[in-house]
Design brief:
With about 350 residues, the chain is of the alpha/beta class. The chain has 3 domains: about 35 residues; about 140 residues, Rossmann fold, CATH 3.40.50; about 160 residues, Glycosyl transferase family 10, C-terminal domain (Rossmann fold). The protein is about 30% helix and about 15% strand. Strands 2-1-3-4-5-6 form a 6-stranded parallel β-sheet. A 5-stranded parallel β-sheet has the order 9-8-10-11-12, with helices on both faces. A two-stranded antiparallel ribbon has the order 7-13. Helix 3 links the parallel strand 1 and strand 2. The longest helix is centred in the first third of the chain and has 24 residues. It is elongated, with a radius of gyration of 26 Å. The N and C termini lie far apart (about 70 Å). Bound molecules: 2-acetamido-2-deoxy-beta-D-glucopyranose (5 copies).
Length: about 350
């Protein structure tokens, strides 16, 4: 090998290294996260483009860690963080109402995901056809969403001391709290049939017996049964009516909503009574009357409390932080080409 070819090799090598350095520096860091983070998998920035329902919450400190023990998950709400955000969250309500817009004019950084978020049933999500080919992920109560944000969930519990006591002092057979009463709701038909068979105490805006949030659980606790009737019947749509009103109130929930199988995967065994278990509302009413008179059988609907406790979701920050728990399981590339179909054909 002569001196000249060695010189050429050095030159080529130098050029190659320079080009590589230039290339890496020029590429956005999101494309080569490994060069920039030693622990990239856990460091996720979630940008809340606007707060759902305008309900602004504090993001000072390490919110996800401090409140929910979720590590290395940064929540931000300044638009200036857009270029460095891994996920940008858009809550559906404001988009369909038109009070907020998608930043479609901004160049979307490589690897950034746009998330569509809604906790409403499909009937209340509006027409989503205009959102074709925009979003990379969904955040919803649905189990098949990319990030599932249920209204409540079970956690293992220490056995509770005195179970019996919590179910004493029942003065009403069946209670219902309803503010949005609509004749076309399936639940309205069932209520009308049921009240012809057993007494139903109705509270809420519709009955002109509104309950303050302080009065809600004490009132429900005086009822044997609580009508945890959803306003829409949709896959996985099980709301705080079950998790909070009924379970926390200490009344046995009578549920109307998705099929029994949807309840069985999230709710404890023998903790609720599904309207579909009965051939008719008449049969349901008769069963409730018998059950309320049979202390032992009634108490069996609370046995689950020996093994489980209910966790009702916290505020919006908890849902946002949950994105980080799923972040590493998200598909590398995904686009919802027809969000309307995903939402409506659940
Ligand atoms: C990565 O981050 C996690 C959570 O913050 C931490 O427990 C772990 O030690 C980190 N690993 C490395 C290699 O830095
Ligand atoms: C995650 O990012 C924050 C600030 O963005 C930094 O302070 C922290 O050290 C990072 N954690 C890891 C595990 O890299
Ligand atoms: C039941 O009612 C009695 C009398 O009103 C009261 O002293 C007691 O604390 C109540 N028990 C529960 C569990 O609410
Ligand atoms: C749930 O109910 C079924 C049938 O009644 C029973 O076999 C099963 O052991 C129960 N599971 C739990 C976790 O209690
Ligand atoms: C997100 O969706 C956009 C728009 O369809 C697409 O260009 C981009 O590649 C997607 N990103 C990921 C990470 O899936």
């Amino acid at each position: 090998m002569d001196v000249r070819s060695i010189k050429n090799q050095i030159l080529y090598c130098t050029l190659f290294v320079l080009l590589l350095l230039f290339y890496c520096g020029w590429m956005k860091r999101a494309e080569f996260p490994i060069f920039y983070y030693s622990n990239s998998t856990w460091n996720v920035t979630i940008l809340i483009w606007y707060w759902p329902f305008g309900d602004t919450l504090s993001l000072t400190g390490d919110v996800c860690w401090d409140l929910y023990k979720i590590p290395s998950c940064r929540l931000v709400d300044q638009h200036s963080s857009f270029p460095s955000a891994d996920v940008v969250v858009f809550h559906n309500r404001e988009l369909i109402e038109g009070s907020q817009k998608l930043p479609t004019d901004l160049p979307r950084p490589q690897g950034q995901r746009w998330a569509w978020m809604s906790l409403e049933s499909p009937a209340h999500n509006g027409n989503l056809q205009k959102f074709a080919n925009i979003f990379n992920m969904t955040i919803s109560y649905r189990r098949d969403a990319d990030v599932t944000t249920p209204y409540g969930q079970l956690l293992p519990a220490e056995p509770e001391g005195n179970l019996e006591d919590s179910h004493m002092n029942k003065t009403s057979l069946v209670c219902w709290v309803v503010s949005n009463y609509m004749n076309h709701h399936k639940r309205t038909q069932v209520y009308n049939e049921l009240k012809a068979i057993v007494p139903v105490d109705v509270y809420g805006r519709w009955s002109q017996k509104p309950l303050s949030s302080d009065d809600l659980l004490p009132t429900i606790s005086r009822c044997y049964f609580y009508l945890a009737f959803e306003n829409s019947v949709a896959k996985d749509y099980i709301t705080e009516k079950l998790w909070y009103n009924a379970y926390k109130g200490g009344a046995v929930p009578i549920v109307l909503g998705p099929p029994i199988s949807d309840y069985n995967v999230v709710a404890p065994n023998h903790s609720f009574i599904h309207v579909d278990e009965f051939a008719s509302v008449q049969k349901l009413g008769e069963y409730l009357q018998r059950l309320a008179e049979d202390r032992k059988q009634y108490e069996e609907y609370f046995n689950w409390k020996k093994h489980w406790k209910v966790k009702v979701h916290g505020d919006w920050r908890e849902y946002m932080c949950k994105i980080c728990l799923q972040y590493n399981n998200l598909p590398q590339h995904k686009v919802y080409s027809d969000l309307e179909a995903w939402d409506k054909n659940a």
